[in-house]
Every structure is written in structure tokens, then in C-alpha cells.
Amino acid sequence: MNQGIPSRDVLVDRNGQMTTIWLIFFERLYSVYSDSSQSNFEAIAQIKDIAEKAHKLATQVQNTNASQQKQIDDLFKQITDSSKDYATSQDIYVVNKSIEQVEYDLQQLQLAFDQLRKTFGEGQKEIVDKFSNLQDQVNTLAKSTFIDAPEDGKIYGRQDANWKEIVAVKLSLPFFLSDGTQQNLALTSDYQLPFFLSNGLQQNIQMVII
């Protein structure tokens, strides 16, 4: 208790939890008060020494909470300031009540922080859901946007909303036989219709001009 206490510790941290120095101080103070066998000058001297060390460290860290610092000063005064130069039973009783009030205040502060975290968490989830919904709309809009085919002299066709280069095309010319059945004539790779003259020579007919 009398050594190795971090001088940077304040009464409560930013999460509303009692810090190490004050937790040790209150526990030591309570144990001395509650043990009747230590109701003597030696115990009182220990209490005053503890209070002086804790008050000195609390002052060094310059507590920014005014009401909190006032509670620290009041506790120190009640423990050490008496007409007989030692704490009376009434002083001890008052300090115990003060400690109980501080503990209660810390519990209420912790509950308030828990509620604040819960409220913030719910609000954050709602914001995330809204952004997710907005992102879904953006993605849908992006998919529906028509993008022109590349201008590189190649032939492209649409496949699954994307442009694909057309490497080969199979075309045929609708042709019907005398019996009414359809037997299409396939064009060559350069869009020509195969055609044979009466002398047996092949003279294709160009069907598409590019």
C-alpha cells in the first residue's frame, strides 16, 4: 500500500471505473476501520499516512473533475483534521458514509456509461444498415449502366451484360426445298454463299459487305 503506487492514477478513469490507487486506498481504509482490534494510535497513524499519500498523488495528477477533486479533499480533511490530531470515531463514521456514497456514485456512473454504449451501438448499427442499403442501390445502378464497346477495330457482342469479342460467326441463308422443308445454306467465314455454275465451277455470292 505504501510503495509502488502509480502517480498518474486519478479517482476514476474515462470508463467510469475506480483506478488502482483509490481502490487500494479505500480497501485499506475500510479494513482498518472495520477491525476493532486496530482502534489505536498506530492504526490512526497508518490511516493518516495513507490519506496523505493518496491526497498528494491526487493533487499531483491535477484532477480535471472539480466535484471529484472536492470529494477527495473532503475525505482527506475528515480523516486528518481533528482537534486531538487524530481521527475520531465520528470522523471514521462520516468517512465511511462518504466512501459508500462515492461507490454508489461510481456504480450509477457505470450504469450511465453502459446505457450510453448501448445507445451508441444501436445508432451505429442503424447507420451501417443505411449505408449498406445505399451501397446495394449503387451496385444495382452500376450493373444497369450501359457501357459502349471498345473502339479498337474489332467486332464485339454482348454476353451477360459484358462486351465479348466475336472471333467467328456462323451465318446461314434460309432455303426451302420443293417439298416445303427448310434446309438453310451456310455461309462461308467471309460471308459468301456457296454457288456452283452449270459447268461445275464454284462461284460464291458475296452476301455481306464489311
Index terms:
2 domains, two-stranded antiparallel ribbon, 6 strands, mainly alpha, 210 residues, 50% helix, disordered N terminus, 4 helices
| Strand arrangement across the biggest beta sheet | 1-2
Radius of gyration: 45 Å
SSE-based structural type: mainly alpha
Overall strand count: 6
Order of helices and strands: HHHHEEEEEE
Mean pLDDT: 69
Q: What is the total domain count? A: 2
Backbone shape:
rod-shaped
Give the number of helices: 4
The N- and C-terminal alpha carbons lie at a distance of 96 Å
Question: Biggest β-sheet: count, sense, barrel?
Answer: 2 strands, antiparallel
The helix content, as a percent range, equals 40-55%
Strand content: 5-15%
Instruction: List the uncertain runs.
Output: 1-7
Could you outline the blueprint of secondary structure elements for this entry?
Elements: H1 20-34, H2 41-60, H3 66-80, H4 89-144, E1 156-159, E2 162-165, E3 172-173, E4 185-186, E5 192-193, E6 205-206
Antiparallel strand pairs: 1-2, 3-4, 5-6
Helix pairs in contact: 1-2, 2-3, 3-4
Structure description:
This protein is about 50% helix and about 10% strand. By secondary structure, the chain is mostly helical. The chain has 2 domains: about 20-120, no CATH class; about 145-210, no CATH class. The strands form 3 sheets. Strands 1-2 form a two-stranded antiparallel ribbon. A hairpin with a 2-residue loop joins strand 1 (about 155-160) and strand 2 (about 160-165). Helix 1 runs antiparallel to helix 2. The longest helix is centred in the middle third of the chain and has 56 residues, at about 90-145. The radius of gyration is 45 Å and the shape is rod-shaped. The relative contact order is 0.07. Residues about 1-5 have low confidence and may be disordered.
